[in-house]
Amino acid sequence: MNDTICAISTAVGIGAISIIRVSGEESINIVNSIFDKDLNKKDSHTITYGHIIENNEIIDEVMVTIMKSPKTFTREDMVEINCHGSISTTNKILEILLSKGARLSEPGEFTKRAFLNGRIDLIEAESVMDMINSKTENARKLAINGIDGKISKLIKDIVNKLINLNANIEVNIDYPEYEDIEIVTKKEIEDISKYINEELSKLLNESENGKIIKEGINTLILGRPNVGKSSILNKLLNEEKAIVTNVAGTTRDIVEGQIRINGVLLNIIDTAGIRKTDDIVEKIGVEKSINLIENADLIILVLNNNEEITKEDLNLLEITKDKKRIIVINKIDLDAKIDLNIFKDEKIIKISALEEIDELKEEISDIFKLDELNNKDFTYLSNSRQISLVKQAIKIAKNLSKSLKEDIPIDILEIDIKQICEILNEIIGESYDEKLIDTLFSNFCLGK
Question: Which of 48, 231, 253, 258 meets the CB 3.0–4.6 Å disulfide criterion with 353?
Fold first, then answer.
């Protein structure tokens, strides 16, 4: 990290301005060498008007911001060049910077340097990317809580308690003759074990909310051919996204769309009708539909009001029984032939896809408690890495409680406590694997 990096930070394309970022020890000197004002005479965090010059030719009129270490995003000297937003101008200035000794940054390298230099922790770094990718207001709130360090503070508070407890255990090991110390230490271990279980379990239980806010609800519309799946998709999206005909097997591949319900994205997939078929293309579509069931957050299982239950219907009811699902009886404008007694206590929704289907939207909102979600503080885990590590910490904390009841020696319990500490530190990036860090930041956009 001793070199100086640069990249275009704004989206590629024509716009009013483009921003080129430079970070590193030589960033001010490099930009100064192509700028017609002396940046060395400027105070930190100031903006200067001038021109980018190459071989006595004016390349562009620009605004240059200088920010001196350590009060910058990367904790290195940084420069941002605001130039006119044409592709050719932006690329030309970047080309000149590279010729003067800067290196093109890797994806996410500015944020990676901020992390490695202690400016932000790993949760805050991941939240930066979540902020960039946020598609809803709730997703933005989730990301800003991560950037502000609310989740990090919760994790750090637990780690600090564990560190203090370990200090007491060390005293107990060094002075075994004092039996009262051992009694106090075991009580502290019991208390911290209960505290960790409660706090982390609460965080974990609400992590599904974080996933929903960040990624949306993956919703699969499933059913036999001609039950009205595509019509329901079109009604939900309020557009003619899928082709609707009376011909069975019209939808041969998945059709996708998105809507927002109470500030949460609904990622809707209309699938090929499930049936046995000799048509090669339709058969592939049916197989894809079945394979999508496992990763769906919600199944909208559509049945025909004017037909009796078939073997295909019963099969779909069986393979989706363990999933969150809504059973929709469509075509209620036609004579009823379906036997509703088969559903017992399961809630069903009766609709006609020719009319408005607000009741279906309301049921989706109720299942995922989207109204309550909007009123919460959005202090959630937001990705599988964080969730996996918290699960590991909870598992060890439960073993710790079990070991206490079995009167395991304190010096053995200390091993579990240190392991929980290490796992929690991995969540916030106090300890980390370099390959993991490289992979994580490689998913960031260039210039961030």
Answer: 231
In the chain, count H helices and then E strands: 16, 12
E strand or H helix that includes residue 6: strand 5-8
Confidence of residue 245 (pLDDT cuts 50, 70, 90): very low
- How are beta strands 298-304 and 325-330 bridged, if at all? parallel
pLDDT on residue 243: 43
5-121: which CATH number, 3.90.1170.30, 2.60.40.420, 3.40.630.30, 3.30.1360.120?
Answer: 3.30.1360.120
* pTM score: 0.70
Measure the CA–CA gap between 302 and 341, rounded to whole angstroms. Answer: 16
Q: Which residue has the tokens 């109720």?
A: 366
DSSP string, 19-64: EEEEESTTHHHHHHTTBSS-GGGSPTTEEEEEEEEETTEEEEEEEE
Give CA–CA dist 420/393, Å, rounded: 5
Domains of the chain by residue range: 5-121, 135-206+381-429, 215-366
The single-letter DSSP state of residue 195 is H
pLDDT-derived band at 274 (thresholds 50, 70, 90) equals low
pLDDT in tens, 353-391: 888 788 888 888 888 888 776 656 666 777 788 888 989
Question: What is the homologous superfamily of the domain 135-206+381-429 according to CATH?
Answer: tRNA modification GTPase MnmE domain 2 (1.20.120.430)
Q: Are residues 336 and 306 in contact, defined by beta-carbon separation less than 8 angstroms?
A: yes
Can you name the residues that pair with 348 across neighbouring β-strands? 327
Query: Which among 241, 363, 374, 228 is positioned nearest to 298, based on CA atoms?
Result: 363
Q: Which amino acid is at 315?
A: N
Helix, strand, coil % (nearest 5) of the chain? 50, 20, 35
Amino acid of residue 229: K
The CA distance from 188 to 134, in Å, is: 42
Q: How far apart are CA 120 and CA 82, in angstroms?
A: 25
For residue range 17-65, what is the model confidence (pLDDT) as tens digits?
999 999 999 999 999 999 999 999 999 999 999 999 999 999 999 999 9
Q: Note the residue count of the chain.
A: 448
| CA angle (376, 258, 254) in 5-degree steps | 135
Cα dihedral 238→240→241→247 (10° resolution):
130
